[in-house]
């Protein structure tokens, strides 16, 4: 066989082998189920939970996280003694609103109803809203709401002495990160809020 024919035969054999190999890979890939890889999340290193007293002149006092800063609410609808507890390194903000009940049962009922309505607004995106009623060490009644799902506020609460003081709080994040990846931070701040409620005291005459 001439060198030209031998070269052509070799090339044809290689081409056939390449085609059969590609076909085999195609068949194998069609029979293999694609399994997507789980989405990765950035690691969040949380600090040790330590606390400091609220030192400003408010009608309430409590201990809050040493890793947070207190800022007055500067919104147009803000009332006296409304504050934000901001976690700069976690992108979180616990917004607190306060109301003097002035001994009015009607005002108390209105504030409780408003708190429930504000929580209920998240029902569109929340697939679970769990309410827990607790008593603080000083005997105040508090309701804590835990929300599951892609909601803007994952944790809300209110606490009152039922006669004069009413304090409501809501946790928000200044980030678009999904709540699944924020779960450790949410739990971290929940513990801070529980500590805040356990150390809450009303400052009479203010």
UniProtKB/TrEMBL annotation:
It holds the Pfam family GldD_lipo. It comes from the Bacteria. Keywords: Lipoprotein. InterPro entries: GldD-like. NCBIfam families: GldD_lipo (TIGR03512). This is Gliding motility lipoprotein GldD.
